Here is the input.
Amino acid sequence: MMKTPFSLLSFATVLLLLMSSGWTGSQAQAAEAEDDGKLRIICFGAHPDDCELRAAGVGALWAKQGHHVKFVAVTNGDIGHWREAGGPLAQRRQAEVEKAAEILGTSVTVMDNHDGELEPTLENRKKITRLIREWNADLVIAHRPNDYHPDHRYTGILIQDAAFMVTVPFFCPETPALTKNPVFMYYEDRFEDPNPFTPDIVIDIDATIDQKLDALAVMESQFLEGGALGNENRTPKTSEERVQRIAQVRQSQDARFMRTAQKYRDQLIQWYGEEHGKDVKHAEAFQVCEYGSQPGEDQLKKLFPFFGE
Here is the structure.
């Protein structure tokens, strides 16, 4: 019987053969993530709602173009509610971000760290490094390490710590190192000390603002019930109150991203041209981290392919 040429074997068959010869699952994931001509973006947030709040608009834009977007919550959010906590809350918040991912067209992972207890340990650095490698990331986005919440700060530090290690072969050697260093970026924030957020790119999210608001609305524990700082009075009791509360959340979050567009109007005009830039109503903004690859304007346009030419 003729042997099947290697070139005719299905990719899945090749993976099975490699895994049976000792290849690890992480290696298989990395191979599966290799170049299909689409971008691979991974966003890290401290809690199950942070990525969605800060990058759902651009995440949905990437997804519409067929690019691969993963949101990662670095803690499970298990104390992020005024009335409930522990495993049941973690499961509830996992379900909420999974619903949000369906709306946005993204994927989501929730890490098993306790909310409020995140530390920039070696173990967590390794976990983050593996996730970035397994995703074969072109772009990594996270909080800046100056922020009001310790989990946000330490998420930023962990991402910074991984920015070089993802390319070091004998750090976490069971998960193959990346041969390219991704671009690392930060979400917009309002903090000034020790240095203010300064955007390197600002993105028009008018086309996906409704998806973003829909995604936030399904995270009811946070946006309808107020999360850790909520109370009984903020929690809707009837279906009518729930409809009203959703409308309030949508209105407040819509205004938030209108403020971003207005604040960075000059940058929007720079990226989109005067006519388009002046018309943008909602935006998300991102700053390049000094660690990782340092993109020029052309590379930023490849990573954020929304400008047309």
Notes: DSSP finds twelve helices and seven strands in the chain.
